[in-house]
Amino acid sequence: MDGKIKIGIIRVLTLENKYDLENHARIIDENGKFRENIEFVSRCIEDQPFGIHDDETLNTAVPKIVKLAKQMEKENLDGIVISCCADPGLKEVEKEVKIPVISAGRECSEEALKLGKKIIAIGITAEASEHLKELLGNNLFDYYNPQNINSTLDLNSKRGRKSVVDSAKKAYRCGSDCIMICCTGMSNIKIAEEIKSNVDIKVADPLESIASKIKKVYDL
């Protein structure tokens, strides 16, 4: 591991299983082929068994994320990834640490804006957040919360996957030219691949976007 860049990945869903905890790191690595250059260190915040899915869970998570980010900097990590499309604590973390901070929502929105001008965002919250509206501006064509999807855990079923794909089909029919996936849990189940096999539309995926940003920040 000597000589490798060390990047901390902050998960906002509390996970006890090490394999599950490190899954975002594996997907980011797969999309960026970083094995030779980067060591990922995955940690999760405490007491968030359903992750972040509304204002209450977001506000509760922010101080935990800031605390974990500061701890990672003290451990001499070279960067931090906030692996959540709500970008919880992003502004606060950037004020508290001096190392680069990469965050799923910001990076995915930048990718979506490169791909299209009529972006339909698909997420797990009931409505589009003000943060998402700021990120996409007038290019936010619409926002969909798939049927029966209220937290990231609801994605781990055939019904959950179908509901997301059905929303993508609806987006296409409504004239969207790009879908922005607004939940890293959707990246976690690689739903972008399934969407593109069913719908002729461009898809901005948060974990893929994080991989692209890492390449840019660390000149890889």
TrEMBL record:
Gene3D superfamilies: 3.40.50.1860. It comes from the Bacteria. One of its GO terms (molecular function) is amino-acid racemase activity. Pfam families: Asp_Glu_race. This is Asp/Glu/Hydantoin racemase. The lineage of its organism: Bacteria, Bacillati, Bacillota, Clostridia, Eubacteriales.
